[in-house]
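From the shared-data thread, chain only:
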Amino acid sequence: MDVAPDSAHVTLAAAAVTDDGRVRVQIIAAWRSTDEARFQLPKVLDELAPVQTAWYPSGPAAALAPILRSRPGSLELQGGKVGEACQGLADLALARRVVHPGDALLDAHIAGASKLHVGDGWRFVRRGAGHVDAAYAAAGACYTAQTMPAPSRQGLRILRY
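Structure, as C-alpha cells:
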C-alpha cells in the first residue's frame, strides 16, 4: 500500500506468484485521501485477509502507520528494500513476468513514474511527478509476493476414499 505525498491519493495492491513463476498484481482499492482510507482500509484488509501487508513507513504512508503497523503480517519496506521493490517491478515488466488486468489507475501511475537515482540503484520519483502511489503499491505487493516463503505442505494429509 502507498500514499501520494500530497495525501490526495492512496492505493492498495495485491500480488501473488503464479504456478509458472510470473507475478500477478492488481489494484484492490484506491481512495482520494488518507482520511477516506483511514476509515475504509481496516474493513478492506479484514475482508482480504492478506498474509502480509507491505507499506513504506519512511514515506507518506506513515500517515496510516497506526493502522498498518497493528496488522498481523505488517511488512515495512524501507531503506534498500524500496529500491529493490521498484527495480524489481521494472525488471519483471521488462521480462514480461508480471501480469495485471489492465487497470487504468496502475497503467497511469506506471506511465507517469520516473527514476530517482539513489546510490547505484533507483526508486520511483515522488516529488513533482504527480501521483505514483499505485506504482509503489504494485512494486511493494510484487516484492512481498516474491519474498514470502513457499506455503508449507508439512502436516497436509491427502484423504482418499
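Helices lie at 34-48, 65-69, 80-94, 104-112, 133-147.
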